Amino acid sequence: MTHELPQLGPDVFLADGGIETDLIFNKGAELPEFAAFTLLSTEDGTRLLDGYFREYLAVAAEAGTGLVLESATWRANPDWAAKLGYDADGLARANRQAVELLLRLRDEQPTGRPVVVSGCVGPRSDGYRPEQLMDTDAATEYHSTQIRQLRGADLVTAITMGYPEEAIGVARAARDAGLPAVISFTVETDGTLPVGMPLAEAVARVDEATDGYPAYYMLNCAHPDHFAAVLDPQAAWTHRIRGLRSNASRLSHAELDEAPTLDAGDPAGFGPLHRGLRDALPWLTVFGGCCGTDARHVRSLARSL
Q1: Alpha carbon 1 to chain centroid distance?
Q2: Averaged pLDDT for residues 78-97
Q3: Would you say the C-alpha torsion 107, 112, 113, 116 has a positive or negative sign?
Q4: Cα separation, 23 vs 28, whole angstroms
Q5: pTM attached to this predicted model
Q6: Which of 25, 69, 123, 270 supports an S-S bond with 127, CB 3.0-4.6 Å?
Q7: Do the Cβ atoms of 130 and 165 come closer than 8 Å?
Q8: Which of 136, 135, 194, 134 is CA-nearest to residue 161?
Q9: Pair type for strands 66-70 and 115-121
Q10: Phi, psi of 282 (to 5 degrees)
Q11: CA 92 to CA 148: how far, in whole Å?
């Protein structure tokens, strides 16, 4: 599947929801540094992740759609792992276990409905406030470690990218590892990246620097109200965006950081918000959730799309 991604066709593919917020607020898990991969260190934690992903397999089966599952490795890169006490071997083992879990779940599913396993790559620093900005060479070297460990997945997806140099580094590291890459940027309430760059410019920079290597782009960790206005159906760059993993809340990143409780928004209304976007941008094929979302939101997507 690494050479032919089925979500590049015309059919809708669902994705899972906001794994960290769902596990913490809805399932009572403790995730130090927001790191879901730490659950893989225990049998109980692994069972919790297994159950989380099975919820979305069930939603996709009900809807008759394909499904993209992201490994629980958004924080499983060297800097975050060091904060959590993981050495190099422990981190490599966690990345491999995260992919193996999804591959096993896929193998258990009936045939005829594609399930794509994506190795999730997160930002080196805070995705909302990217303070440790790398150049492209440094980003390539840094993310190569994790991406090599995610081999076995069908592709890698860089989630919550806040500036283009890091996204370029991920794309180049994925190319070196022989894996397709998807780049998912996050934006503020005005539709620009956390560093203030227009989304169109960020996509153009990554494509130019990588000869268009990313299979496609996505947006995540923002509410549709924050980015809908910048997705011009007539602009060529907008056709490179094929997926959305939206927040449930309309709050800004800064407000979400300070919120003491989970804002799940309107689960039933989550799908209809995206129906209008797909009507305007019919090449969008991958739809899931980010912060505050759970299986209810993805089920709403399935019903609307």
Answers
A1: 19
A2: 97
A3: positive
A4: 6
A5: 0.96
A6: 123
A7: no
A8: 194
A9: parallel
A10: -65, -10
A11: 9
